[in-house]
Amino acid sequence: MDFTNNKNDFENTFTFESSSPPKQPAPPSPVEAHKAKYKRNSLPRNAEEARQRRIELDAQARRKHRDQLITTKRFKHNLEEYKDDDSEPEYNLSQKDIEKLKSGLNNVNRDARLSSLQDLSKYLVDPSDILRQFVIEGDCIEILIKFLSSIDPAEQLQATWCITSMSIITFNILILNFTMNTLFILKFYTVSLNEDIAAGPKEFVQKASLAIPYLIPFLERENIPLQDQAAWAIGNIAIESSECRELLRKNGVLVPLINLLDSKDVNLIQTACFALSNLARGPNAKLHEFFTAGINNRLIQHLETDESFEVVSEVSWVLTYITSDDDNKYTDQLLNEGIAPLLVKHMRPLLNHGPLSLPLVRTFGNIASGPDTNTDHLIRQPDFLPSMIQYIQSDCRPVKKESLWVMSNITATRRPEVLVKVFNAGFIPILSNIATHTNFDIRKEAAYSLVNIASHGLEFMKSLPHQELLPGFLEFIRTSSGENVKGIDAIETAILTEDESLRNAASRLMDKYFGEEFSEQMQVQIEETT
């Protein structure tokens, strides 16, 4: 449908009138406006306000759900450590082995100490019970701190490796138990997500946090491997809890970590972004400290100059957390500093790189979930909507789903002129096809955009292909959502991993239990009924 030739009629049809008297009182504070949405006696003044409130409340709930899925426990690991298909610990150490290890760590011979540190780092990847006891109840961390405070860079590096390994051991156990193609494993993974598995056992991370005062100075050393490993360990510790992040901030981690973004080493920049993204997570991230330290200028600089897909992806992960601020303060600052065209610039280059594009899409979704002025910044970019059409048809399922979430935020705008651009860009046939022919949860994401469009008035409602959409919407009414048990979320998280065998196993589960074959069966049942 083309609205461009009847602009006057369109504007007359979609004029949003206020029921308030001409003289308006001072607008409520953001806090008061937010609280008003939840007051029992906060009745809408007119149909438009009621419609917009429903859209906003729904968007908030869906955004919270996406926060839990996309931003949950992202930590850095070494894939070479994860090769065994057995879920039992690779190193079934005895007390005698632990004593031998301690002897090596305290050996007067440097090579023997380094060898023992390397062994300990490997053992910590998937620790046996006796090693767990050594870490939690023994003097393991005290020995490692002794190496961190030494003057030998090689020993410092190996000890930092051990600290890093202490914070990622659960991931290895988890992926090894996800390789069987059964619903039992699906249930196990779902429970793991709901319980919010830490990067490592809580006691391990508590021990690792004792090394924080020794790790942070390494960030300022002119030793790239040591800087990288220290940032890696700090990033993994930061995942565990808001208390860990607060401890890191109190020890002055932000300035030296943000300064690493000035490095010429691509890997170091990625690791620094990884650590910063984990420090910026959560409701009490104290983002003002990040901006005081100059993170905005560094991120913008990398978006302007970097062509590395990996760097752009990691920068976008940082932005994913920054743009999730509730009051839109820092999102607004970044938009005013010109970040929108820089983000859009990277859309097409990242399009065919699967999960690497996910944080970029997620950032767009966060921006669009804010005030309509945020959406305006995106819509003004000539290539934004044409690129989004490609993204909602992505072969990477999580990217496709997130892109549809972006469009649901775009179409939730109060401004009909934005919807005109969505129509004229060709979204309606594609959204309609997705809403009726793909997987159930994907269809539901597309349906949100169509419902938002229809809610803007009769003219938009009449433009939708009702005969095509009706069977699909009847199915939504009759079918229980598979998302209620979080199974789809669990598998999608596994699809995003770097481990190829795990990705393949997760894809098989998705195809078998949540794929189009299941959706087609449901469609046949609906058609027979109607």
TrEMBL record:
Residues 1-51 are annotated as: Disordered. Keywords: Protein transport, Repeat, Transport. InterPro entries: ARM-like, ARM-type_fold, Armadillo, Importin_alpha. Residues 1-17 have a biased composition (Polar residues). It holds the Pfam family Arm. GO terms for biological process: protein import into nucleus. It comes from the Eukaryota. Gene3D superfamilies: Leucine-rich Repeat Variant. Belongs to the importin alpha family. PANTHER family: IMPORTIN ALPHA. This is Importin subunit alpha. It comes from Funneliformis mosseae.
